[in-house]
Amino acid sequence: MDYDILIIGAGPGGIFSAYELAKADRGLKIGVVELGRELSKRKCPIDGKKVKSCIRCPVCSIMSGFGGAGAFSDGKYNITNQFGGTLYEHVGKQHAIELMQYVDEINVSHGGEGTKLYSTANSQIKRVCLENGLHLLDAQVRHLGTDINYVVLENIYNELKDKVDFRFNSAVERVERIEGGYALTVGGERLTAKKCIVSVGRSGSKWMESVCNDMGITTHSNRVDIGVRVELPADIWTPLTDKLYESKIVYRTEKFEDLVRTFCMNPHGVVVNENTNGIVTVNGHSYEDKTKHTENTNFALLVSKHFSEPFKDSNGYGESIARLSNMLGGGVIVQRFGDLVRGRRSTEKRIADCFVTPTLAATPGDLSLVIPKRILDGIIEMIYALDKIAPGTANDDTLLYGVEVKFYNMEVEIDENLETTSPGLYVIGDCSGVTHSLSHASASGIHVARHILENLDA
Ligand SMILES: Cc1cc2nc3c(=O)[nH]c(=O)nc-3n(C[C@H](O)[C@H](O)[C@H](O)COP(=O)(O)OP(=O)(O)OC[C@H]3O[C@@H](n4cnc5c(N)ncnc54)[C@H](O)[C@@H]3O)c2cc1C
After folding, report:
1. Which of 42, 54, 59, 64 to mutate to test the pocket of ligand 1 (most atoms within 8 A of CB)?
2. Distance CA 204, CA 38 (A)
3. Kind of pairing, strands 223-233 and 270-276?
4. Pick from 35, 88, 77, 90: which is nearest to 58 by CA?
5. Ramachandran region of residue 75, left (φ > 0), alpha (ψ -120 to 50) or beta?
6. Which atom of ligand 1 is found nearest the CA of 78?
7. pLDDT by residue (tens digit) across 62-84?
8. Is the pTM of this model over 0.85?
9. Residue 204 C-alpha to ligand 1 middle, in angstroms?
């Protein structure tokens, strides 16, 4: 065998499993195969001058490379079982929290010291939310910020690079079970290992599905979250963001009894484009560095759609809605809340006259032509509900960007060790369908590494 353990994907799942395996110092030969570039060479060509929007690079530097999809993210590590994944269903609630706390310790000791750990538990805000039909979920959140998140990744890479064999710009094409382990086809090469950890994230979900089909591993179809990104003056939300930084709030709509939730809150942040498989959607960032702060806060409002038989392609459904916005707006569409509720599109002039300055150059348009009525009605209802705890949220000039889509992978059948029915083949992180966040994906990597270490001589 070329390696003891081969890891596919250098996102948080892959990195933290490599970290834990290398730290054990058991003389293991560990390889990481990653289709994107190393961290210092990841560069999105959008510079706002020559390249203003996504040019659909063959390998997206935002989604792929060392650090995975989270490398340029806001670096919010939520320590909770209430959202971010269902790792606890496999490893137990207490253990899942301990794993996430351990990940936090690693981040703090690799450049994250000095960053703040926020907590929503027992806060006065929780009570105010309840009084208004809103439910604030319990969590601790370490906000690294995009800048410190990068520093942490850089430090972890420097520590690992002499202990782990990293192969960048290398897409794994095939995984094959062989006598005593697995063989990966990478370009013209064949790499073999006793054990294999797959952590290819959301961007690798389609490929992962084909691997499962080839190997007879059962998968279950999952869900998709669809919504908008809200941007408004930061002052409106400071009573919440100053105390909690990120608040995950859930609301049940009166009309359809659907659940709408806030997601990925970025105080003083910026709204950004995201490219998933060539489809441009919207997301948000914020920086720990105060010099990079804007006057706006942004967060997503999402509605989860779960499908029942015979429909199985939940991601395809989300992609089609995002494609509609790309078709009408050439990318992301922006609309004033006031225009949306009056049933008219936003125009360049209406956006220019707006009291909120958009942080993303999106095309003014009409989100009601893109987002299904049921989902849009739920979002409008929640904006009015949020207005009660953060007055000003439902102002006419509040900006809505669409479409924000959270794609989920099909859920792969794995056991409590995150091992598939094919012995020695582990599926972790977001491509397992079990995690949807930095902390859960990272924790799944640690869990698998420890399981492998404990069973080395077995
Ligand atoms: C803009 C943005 C902001 C985000 N912000 C946050 C946040 O603040 N907090 C939070 O909790 N979560 C956030 N997330 C989500 C978070 O980044 C993911 O949940 C997390 O990165 C999942 O980790 P992972 O290791 O499972 O997968 P990924 O991070 O997606 O990594 C998978 C890696 O596998 C590689 N790969 C794919 N296919 C192959 C193949 N065939 N061969 C070799 N390599 C392959 C990819 O190139 C990629 O680098 C954000 C995501 C985005 C896009």
Report:
1. 64
2. 17
3. unpaired
4. 35
5. left
6. 11
7. 899 999 998 998 899 999 999 89
8. no
9. 9
